[in-house]
């Protein structure tokens, strides 16, 4: 009797563990693409207000201020490993930087861009990453790759299309 009860208990626990482990590791590309797209759209629309983002004497100072604001607003969507060059590409895509001559000195203004959209999305099955083909105003064109980091989709790479 004890052996039968123990055997049933082992079978029930084994079945439960097998069911749990099978579902947890399954990667549903369609569901994950929806999650990644939501993250990407959140980044692209976070500066839709058309207000000034940063003002500084030089564009370099304005870019630093702007990047800090972008990173703060999108902390959960931007990978810590995003390279400085890739940060600049994302900053350029999300903002419009211009310099004005005010009273004999230059002042750099970075304005919100409101017409940035996703043209296409591709999935790398081997790496399990999504790459978004993003365009601004019909002329700025970047490929932004998101990878899953600790159950969250994050921007990991930004490149110019070839």
UniProtKB/TrEMBL annotation:
<keyword id="KW-0732">Signal</keyword>
<feature type="signal peptide">
    <location>
        <begin position="1"/>
        <end position="18"/>
    </location>
</feature>
<protein>
    <recommendedName>
        <fullName>DUF4829 domain-containing protein</fullName>
    </recommendedName>
</protein>
